[in-house]
UniProtKB/TrEMBL annotation, chains A, B:
Highest taxon of source: Bacteria
Keywords: DNA-binding, Transcription, Transcription regulation
PANTHER family: TRANSCRIPTIONAL REGULATOR, TRANSCRIPTIONAL REGULATOR, MARR FAMILY
Protein name from the UniProt record: Winged helix-turn-helix transcriptional regulator
InterPro entries in UniProt: HTH_HxlR (IPR002577), WH-like_DNA-bd_sf (IPR036388), WH_DNA-bd_sf (IPR036390)
Gene3D superfamilies per the UniProt record, alphabetical: Winged helix-like DNA-binding domain superfamily/Winged helix DNA-binding domain
HTH hxlR-type domain: residues covered: 11-109
Amino acid sequence: MQATSDVDQTCGMSIAIDVVGGKWKMHLMWVLAEGPVRFGQIRRKLDGVSEKVLAENLRQMEASGVVHRELYAEVPPRVEYSLTPLGESLSVALKPLEDWGDQHRDAILSRE
Amino acid sequence: MQATSDVDQTCGMSIAIDVVGGKWKMHLMWVLAEGPVRFGQIRRKLDGVSEKVLAENLRQMEASGVVHRELYAEVPPRVEYSLTPLGESLSVALKPLEDWGDQHRDAILSRE
């Protein structure tokens, strides 16, 4: 008998996990959904993320096509991050998950 | 000025991330949505997960109230994992994310 994996690495959930897997990326989607933000603003909103990890996550989300990085040639230069149209559609797809958390907050927190 | 975090740790997305944060838990939700499964079956479906990590993730999801572990007193004993009603509702909330991945598969895979 040949051992094979049943996971189709291109199934929808695998693709989505590639893009928002890990806790920071889902938090980032939530922060970015509110509109363009600067790096420092994101860091203040995400308690506990290091500069290095935040930069890496934003780069990966830019590579996935869900985040846009805009550099404004000011002094000092200003960089803003926002969702691309693909990112906006992902944000919409994540909304039911956020609503689920809201609806079941008490049941889940009471177990912790 | 006092530095404070804007993240409400009890917001819906934070709760959801607590429950399904990390790549294995979202994969696990996807596997468990198909019905009760045994530990070995899950391992075969999730390519690359170690026994230790899988057991830990299942324990955490049981603690969150989304996974039920049933022990059948057979010889040898049989253990099956399934979604609780809370887990079923989470599975429904994750569906749009899976659909998003399906819909944008080509756009995302072409960037990798």
